[in-house]
Amino acid sequence: MVNEESWDTRRAKIAKLLRNAPRSASEISRVLGISIADVLEDLRHIARSPKYGELRIHPARCRKCGYVFKAEIKIPKKCPRCKSTWIEEPLFILR
């Protein structure tokens, strides 16, 4: 018997993960065993494609000063306000 999930594309697998709960790019990367760069590229495609639904982004936030970044499909490296690198990644979910 063939496992149906093995036929899913990488983007379809990401979409399935995002329908259950909000997830960060790092978490998706760990679960699927792919690079964060590939995850971010696929998320950009998913955001443009109506077949997956609406991609919502909970923006990244600085854990030191609370600065909230713009809601984008990228992982900030440093806070522009306090220069801290202690950044909470953005979370993505499909609706």
- CATH architecture, please? Orthogonal Bundle
Structural class: alpha+beta
Mean pLDDT reading: 93
Strand content: 5-15%
Taking the sheet with the most strands, its summary is: 2 strands, antiparallel
According to CATH, what is the topology? Arc Repressor Mutant, subunit A
Unreliable spans are none
User: Percentage of helical residues?
Assistant: 25-40%
Name of the level-1 CATH class: Mainly Alpha
How would you write the strand order of the largest sheet? 1-4
**End-to-end C-alpha gap:** 32 Å
Apparent shape:
elongated
The total count of helices amounts to 3
Number of strands: 4
Total domains: 1
Radius of gyration: 15 Å
SSE topology string: HHHEEEE
Can you give a write-up of this model?
It is a single chain. The chain is an alpha+beta fold. It has one domain (10-94): Arc Repressor Mutant, subunit A, CATH 1.10.10. It is 34% helix and 13% strand. The chain has helices at residues 10-20, 25-32, 36-48; strands spanning 55-58, 61-62, 87-88, 91-94. Helix 2 (25-32) crosses helix 3. The longest helix is centred in the middle third of the chain and has 13 residues, at 36-48. The relative contact order is 0.21. The model has no long low-confidence stretch (mean pLDDT 93).
Task: Summarize, please.
The protein is of the alpha+beta class. The protein has a single domain, classed as Arc Repressor Mutant, subunit A.
